[in-house]
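Two folds, back to back.
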Amino acid sequence: MRCRPLGLILAVILMTPFNEAGAGELAKLKPSKTVELLNGRLSIRVPDKTKLEPRRASIMAAEESSAEESRLVLQLGKEKLVLMVYEMFALQGKDLGQTVNAYVKSWKSKAGETFKVTRTSTPLADSYSIVPSALDTTGEAIFVQGVFCGHTDGTTQYLAFYLNPTAAKDVVEIRKLIRSMSDSLRIGKTKLSIAAGDRKLDIMQKGRHLVIKVPDGWSNTHQEGPDFLLHRLHKLAPLGAPAPAIGVYVGGHPSYYHRRIAAAKKTLKQIKGKLLGQSVEWQDYSVPSPDGKTTTFSREVFLRLPDSDRLLLHISASAQTKKDLTNLIGLLEKLKLVKGK
């Protein structure tokens, strides 16, 4: 459930139709307005024609959570620049520079390029620019620069700048625009709520909601669809480190994650349990990482929302150790349905 720096869904990044005009004009633009990012976690100065356009996994899908990512689109004629901004739900550690360097070394590239990490002069607590040694022009969305931000609250955000092939022909000049934009980054007023305590989860019913009690260091977000809600709870961990996560879907059409993962079939088993006063049967499975060095342990279950004839819950949990997964299930077993505000 964590955000992705390079392994994101590029097919939707540059899907807006082009307007007819000559190339070479994008680099002439200057930042002229301020836009809030990640629900006010950060702000940035951008050219006036820049639009905030939330990403969708498909045409029919719901917009991604604005607390987890922001998508800015700047198009001038056939040239296009897209800025993706992610809340990494990650801690900086003692030395963000060392953490970023180690993290970037793990990036895989089809073009085989390396990435230069440079500390930048933004007014943030700490930030680092990521520039590829060569452009991977095999796709429609071409990564040209990234920025890891060190927030004053100790967390990390990531910005990724992409150009379409037409704009990439003028990448040297457009990087000057990107530099002026990234130099304008500012800390916003919104803070992550990570204190231990009860978290209220909306269930699309007036006067009722779910409550889960989490330890210190957990943050929660939600994605709102036309007929569903998806709550995500993230345990903050060092940048690049896997972390436990919980998902709570509320709607009428849940879908098991394990059915989309071929490797899950090998370990899938059922474990009996109890949630919200109901007997349930967890779907338990584990999936190794591509390099075989780590394993993700997961459980998920469907159950009907009490006193509802149409709403179902899809509750999931994942962790990198069996002990952490057991602890997550312990949190979920204390999930409560509460009436009132």
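---
second:
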Amino acid sequence: MSALARSRCLFAAFLSIATALPLFAEGGAIEHVQKFPDYIVIGFVGGFVRHDNPNHGPVQVAERIERTDSSDAYVQVFENRHRKAAYETVLRLLDRDHDGSLSPQEKDRARIILFGQSWGGSAVVMLARELRRMGIPVLLTVQVDSVAKPWQNDKVIPPNVTEAVNFYQTQGLIHGRRQIRATDPSRTEILGNFRFDYRHTPVQCQSRLSWYDRVLTPGHAQSECDPRLWSEVEALVRQHIEPPASAAVAMPRP
């Protein structure tokens, strides 16, 4: 074998190993990179929670899906303040020819699911709007006890979203958006606004809650770790990325 042929073989081997290794993204969990995933699943944690905090619902859901999902899906969790990094990640994953812009065909291939809690729920809607400006569709948005920052509106779902669902609770000083609505009901189906009542069915979080959470925001804190609620979120995500026979989900009563 010539020196040139050996060099080409070594280079090809290096590329195959490099693409199989996980990468780290700012504000996000480990990226298990798949070159052209069929689905892009993006989660956002609330407040000032780290993207890899295992005690919080969005991180747990992402880890379970990534560990057991058999479909070709890219799954990553971001801190809500790193929405720009999430946006850039989506564009990069959709840009199959790596020319720095998205063609109509690349946009049509988008299969995106967004979910988040608290400020992360608001980040979901904000990211969906940013994708709309690029003409990129979103399959599903899931908001859990969504809380908007002063300059944000997490109530109105943009028309590039096919389906949207909202989970909320009303206990304490901080509680989520009670109702979301579609900008264009003919293009977006609101699956429901579902209330969880922690006064009657409290949840014991694995992590120790601060006095602030225990006294002033007990319901909001419990929405971060409620296994039943996050099982509903996980089922919704799986319904869109797995074969229908294995991913049926019954929505809770509003």
